[in-house]
């Protein structure tokens, strides 16, 4: 028992339904192979791409993490050494005696031992710029590079960090921007001035070792800015890498000076716990964060991904090249297979062409006999075609007879038409009777009606008419409509002088003007104005304006939608037949770029007719 077919198809097969009919059977077979292979190749490519991208990301993150770790090692060694030095100094006996003598009131305590001891430490450590020892209200000692700005106690009191130092009860503190006064530092924080030179400083309160209660003063150690910047420059990763040292609250302590500033990533709290690739301002960045194991500080490095993915570009190029080679091989194999499978169908197609007068000398009678005796689908197709040809011959004969009968009927209809001269003569007689009886309005109406009939019944097989003739037809038509609408209708023509001798499609204006009167001015209580404007340049423009605004533009756009190649747009809508007919006639005889358009303003409906400039009615 055969299983019933439900008529459904897989979505994949709908692709073939959309292929052009001009595509050959061989090409369809070839495309079928391609369509089967494309998803497999796409999955392979996407999988390879994702795996390769993940590997590259991990490699880049690991490389930057190594650079961060190198930087951390150098920074940690420097900070620990500075803290150890400061601890040794505040407990050094010479320094203690020097500061105790100063605290006891000696205005000039002996400082040779202190100077020797301090300078010995500074001379061997390039990362220390200067040191300053102060009492509680004046400076006691400073190294050679400690300029007045950092050695004068009055200037020290003006620094932004000094109030915090006085209030603090911890053994030491680190302060960034140590050279800045409170006013300058506040302006920098408020973004009123650009960032100043960032000098990092360690400071300790110095207590007497006699009781560890009496404070003798302060020790300040300023690090060398240039030395720290050289540490940043040793980073061999990216051209515009930003490196930051931050405290536990993610406040930047020091950072490198880079061509570009990526600190906005810190401000938006986008830094991951360790390493990762994030997006910021439509760019990707490699961000690595690592704890320094010192004062709960951590270092952070930010590098644009595009600056460090050079190897990724090479690997991607290799992957694309490999996929291209596979696609080429697939193309050749698919082409060969499609040709082999399509060869019997192509032979049958050539055999069928011989029935239409195509002389294919590659086919002989033995092939015809072979197709007749075949029991597969190929033989069935040949026998069906032979039956179809017999049926077509019968239908052609029947259709020929019907066409002859139709031509005879049309000829009889033409012979039975009334001669229009009889109608003109009758209207002319009525006009003379009206004039004789003083009925001028009736005479005017009869004259306009006669002109309308004369212009509309002129014998002309051309679909075009002179512009001047179409204008005279519309003028006669509006005379008749003026009697109907009386004072409710005011019309005006805006025509070029002289009217150019050009041709436009016949009878395209009257239906549009009739619509304007019926659906526009006729709907207004007090009537309205109608204006017909014509201008000619590279194109012929005919614009018809009326005071009515009761138009549905969406419906009108639907009515005017027309494409002779789209079967869904060939049928006429139930409404607006006249407008549809005019628009379609223009597009068919003038071209798809011409036709009608409608728009609406606050007080008017405007119909624009775009036509070519024709100087001949043929």
Walk me through what this model shows:
It is a single chain. The protein is of the alpha+beta class. The protein is 50% helix and 17% strand. The chain has helices at 14-17, 25-91, 93-103, 112-123, 148-151, 153-158, 162-167, 182-189, 225-233, 264-267, 310-353, 365-373, 377-415, 420-436, 440-456, 467-485, 510-520, 553-560, 577-590, and strands at residues 128-134, 139-142, 173-175, 201-207, 215-223, 242-246, 252-255, 275-280, 283-291, 298-304, 464-466, 489-494, 503-505, 528-536, 539-546, 595-600, 605-612. Strand 8 (275-280) and strand 9 (283-291) form a beta hairpin. Helix 2 (25-91) runs antiparallel to helix 11, helix 12 crosses helix 13 and helix 15 (440-456) packs antiparallel against helix 16 (467-485). The longest helix has 67 residues, at 25-91. The radius of gyration is 49 Å and the shape is elongated. The two termini are 67 Å apart. Residues 1-10 and 411-418 have low confidence and may be disordered.
User: If strands are numbered along the chain, what order do they take across the biggest sheet?
Assistant: 2-1-5-4-3
How far apart the termini lie comes to: 67 Å
Unreliable parts: 1-10, 411-418
Can you count the beta strands? 17
Question: Percent of residues in helical segments?
Answer: 40-55%
The total of helices stands at 19
Please tell me what the overall shape is. Answer: elongated
Oligomer: single chain
The largest β sheet comes out as:
5 strands, antiparallel
Query: Which structural category do the helix and sheet elements fall into?
Result: alpha+beta
Q: What number is the mean pLDDT?
A: 79
The value of Rg in angstroms is: 49 Å
Beta-strand percent range:
15-25%
